[in-house]
UniProtKB/TrEMBL annotation:
Its main location: membrane. Gene3D superfamilies: MFS general substrate transporter like domains, Multidrug resistance protein D. This is Major facilitator superfamily domain general substrate transporter. It is found in: Membrane. It comes from Penicillium cf. griseofulvum. The lineage of its organism: Eukaryota, Fungi, Dikarya, Ascomycota, Pezizomycotina. It is a multi-pass membrane protein. The chain crosses the membrane at residues 30-50, 62-80, 92-111, 117-142, 149-170, 182-202, 223-241, 253-270, 290-311, 331-350, 357-375, 381-399, 420-441, 491-510. PANTHER family: MAJOR FACILITATOR SUPERFAMILY (PTHR23501), MAJOR FACILITATOR SUPERFAMILY (MFS) PROFILE DOMAIN-CONTAINING PROTEIN-RELATED (PTHR23501:SF177).
Length: 527
């Protein structure tokens, strides 16, 4: 029986001859398109949320629509990374795809908010396996000279998903129903599953590590997953209840926040005890390059997802745009990301130094978020287009470079684990940022309404869908309600400013010297 010490180095990665495959045996293009699907699930809901709030009557659970997906996407990243070590790639990939599709189906037929949230969570579990598997496969199976190009394509993948998600969400919500934002994944997933079953062949260099079922179970770290989920749920519930259902000083809110801290500390202690079995391996997190890059990605990516959620709210609720127009209005930022992600890849290729551009990107993104904060009900088209282009350019340069830095100083057998750790922090950043922003939005909205629309019950506005405001309330009250909405959205943008600013501070802890993919080659990929 194979036994692994909790404190010895884990060598249970898939065994790969000479480190990588020497032939193009693996369908990396397919992996990239699966990544498009999982990322699009994170962005497609943004433009659909106002319509969803109309059907489910209110804003009370909006934060869960995004947070449930990001919570499970992040919480299960490392576990899927471990699963790819011990189970066949093909069958494991199909399991993740099945879960992703099952969650999409549940979202599509959801009769209420609770069912939608459950579906989003299940999709997140599957999406975590798709993201970890696709990225790890590319990192393992590409030749060193091709790896930079393929890893750079991941940045393009995110840009494609960021563009397609809001546009499709707007079209489906306005022309058919928001439910097609989720139904669309079903035929695509069926085709992908068929392709995998018929044409997918493992690279001959990859072999699954043998282990007992007990070892496999322990490596997945189920206790760590439960603690991570409980920690996030306490945080989200505390912010959801605070200032609306309960006062900030209430025992319910304080209890949830205390629970969040206690569970977080318990999780840290458990992960240290687990050693190599841990979801977040302590040996690796002792490296400053990894923990600094992971924390940077937590704040930076969290802010990006926040913008994807609240810019559509601005266009639809404040500007009165329909979902399709909202998706079009959001294009300047996502197109800028697609363009500048290429420019960022070229510049990092030339210099081999990603950190200066990560610091610059975070600084400029902070400024761009400050400009978003200055927007009001009368902001001109030229201004919000310019602000989005500036934000898109700033976000594009650093977004994927954390993986560059994280991979630079680890052995080949740790690549999947390190990749999962970075994605864990990245997606948890989305869960925490959206929850914090929603809390700020709702509390500012409710506090402002008595000043701008004194004749309106704040809780009635809170219980009304974003795009129903102009049809539910009297015309004379609408300007005041829209002003209060604008103040709420500004509060969400303030959260964005704080998070991008924190990312800038963390960038100063990253390595500023030239980094290498091995002893000879610079890591130049990533955009």
């Amino acid at each position: 029986m194979s036994v692994i010490s909790r404190n010895e180095k884990d060598n249970n990665e898939p065994i790969i001859s000479n480190g990588v495959s020497t032939k193009d045996e693996y369908p990396t293009g397919l992996a990239l398109w699966l990544l498009v699907g999982s990322v699009m699930m994170a962005t497609i809901v943004g433009t659909a949320i106002p319509k969803i709030t109309d059907e489910f009557h209110g804003l009370s659970e909006v934060s869960w629509y995004g947070s449930a997906y990001f919570m499970c996407l992040g919480g299960f990243q490392s576990s899927w990374g471990k699963a790819y070590k011990f189970f066949p790639l093909k069958s494991t990939f199909l399991v993740t795809l099945f879960l992703f599709e099952l969650g999409s189906l549940i979202c599509g037929v959801a009769p209420n908010s609770n069912a939608l949230i459950v579906g989003r969570a299940i999709s997140g579990v599957g999406g975590a396996g798709i993201a970890t598997g696709g990225t790890t496969i590319i990192a393992f199976c590409a030749e060193p000279r091709k790896r930079p190009t393929l890893m750079g394509l991941i940045g393009i993948t995110y840009a494609v998903a960021a563009v397609a998600g809001p546009l499709l969400g707007g079209v489906f919500s306005d022309k058919v129903t928001w439910r097609w934002c989720f139904y669309i994944n079903l035929p695509i997933g069926g085709v992908v599953a068929g392709i995998i079953l018929v044409f997918f062949h493992l690279p001959s260099a990859v072999k699954v590590q043998k282990a007992t079922w007990k070892e496999k179970f322990l490596q997945i770290d189920p206790v760590g997953i439960v603690l991570a989920m409980a920690c996030i749920i306490c945080f989200i519930l505390a912010l959801q209840y605070a200032g609306t259902t309960y006062a900030w000083k209430s025992s319910q809110v304080i209890g949830l926040l205390v629970g969040f801290v206690v569970i977080a500390l318990t999780m840290v202690a458990w992960e240290c005890y687990q050693g190599e079995y841990a979801m977040l391996v302590p040996r690796l997190l002792k490296q400053r390059d990894l923990w600094a890059a992971s924390l940077y990605q937590f704040f930076f990516a969290g802010s990006f997802f926040l913008l994807l959620y609240y810019l559509p709210q601005y266009f639809q609720s404040v500007k009165g745009a329909d979902p399709i127009q909202s998706g079009v209005d959001n294009l300047p930022m996502v197109i800028a990301i697609g363009i500048f992600v290429l420019a960022g890849g070229i510049i990092v290729t030339i210099t081999g130094r990603p950190t200066p551009f990560m610091a610059l990107g975070a600084a400029v993104a902070t400024v761009a978020s400050g400009l978003f904060y200055t927007m009001d009900t009368h902001t001109s088209t030229a201004k919000w287009i310019g602000y989005q282009i500036l934000a898109g350019a700033a976000i594009a340069f650093p977004y994927q470079n954390c993986l560059n830095i994280a991979h630079a100083k680890v052995d080949a057998e740790d690549i999947s684990t390190v990749t999962a750790i970075v994605y864990f922090f990245q997606t948890l950043g989305g869960a925490f940022s959206i929850s914090a922003a929603q809390s700020a939005f709702v509390n500012r909205l409710i506090a402002t309404l008595p000043l701008t629309a004194p004749g309106v019950d704040p809780l009635a506005v809170y219980a009304t869908g974003s795009t129903e405001l102009r049809t539910i309330f009297p015309a004379e009250e609408i300007p005041g309600i829209i002003l209060a909405y604008m103040e709420g959205i500004k509060a969400a943008f303030a959260v964005c400013i704080a998070m991008f600013g924190t990312a800038f501070v963390l960038s100063l802890l990253l390595p500023w010297k030239k980094i290498h993919s091995d002893g000879k080659e610079d890591i130049v990929a990533m955009a």
